[in-house]
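User: Predict the structure for this protein chain, please.
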Amino acid sequence: MSQLVIKQVMVAVTNEVAGVEMGVLADGTPYLTGRGLSTICGTAPSTIIEHAKSWLEGQRDGKFHRFLASQGVDAPSLYIKTRHRKRDVHAYSDSISMLILEYYAFEARNELAQRSYRFLARKSLRDFIYTRTGYDPARQVPLNWRQFHDRLELNLVPRGYFSVFREMTDVVIASIRAGLAVDDHTVPDISVGRMWSKHWEDGFLAARYGERIRYEHNYPDYFPQADSNPQQPWAYPNVALGEFRDWLTNEYLPERYPDYLDGKVRKGELPADTARQVLAAVLPAELPAAPAPVQAAFVPATPPMLVVSPVRPPPPPAPLVLSLSPDPRE
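Assistant: Here is the predicted structure, written as structure tokens:
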């Protein structure tokens, strides 16, 4: 069995049941944390940590390590490392967790581990975690769409005002379709909000459209940014909406968004090819240039021709016909 190490796979959902920390990753993998795993195995969290550390360092001569190797485990790490709510998470997948539990139940003969194993033998650990976290794999939408949808549901703008986040909807949807992973690491509306705020202040737009106001904006609880909820971004008067859209289309997208995506590429968070596809998807289409007027060559005017009709001779005079009546005197 091979347990792959996946870097920075986001956590989709978490829960803690009777002291057992568990969750599901964005790719649908159910897991136990090291602490949750130690709880069902009846051992100390430090013991699980030490086993995983020695495995990662290649020290696999102990009884625990030989047991896992005999079961086909050959991956460099026993856990998947990710982050959730600003802390590191070592996620032991359901398959690895069950093997470790089996070791403690039958090799180490731990009574609590045996009870846990008998309980999970009736219902798989995968189903147990799905049920206790409320995760339904049949109804899951792709994580990018779910995160964006959850943010939309959480945030309403006061009547008469617009928010940068909601006005970015078309851009975000086009970016996601082009391959951009919009998650807690990639939040384009933050970049747009900062740039638009500067444009608003530099242009003294409040004098033209009225004052902007603060409103409450919340991130879903599985976002690290949720630790500082509620946020207090600006909402702008609706009368300035046309100004914002012109600025977004003509300034931010062609001039600023490429820099934002390039920063993601440099950090290794976005492939360069995907960045190009995203830009092609969001930049406004340019109308084809009008053809240049054709310069007509000078052609001297041709004087009009004098058309002379041929002179026809006049028709001959009609013959004189005399009607002679008999003279009555004759």
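The CA atoms of residues 117 and 123 lie 10 Å apart.
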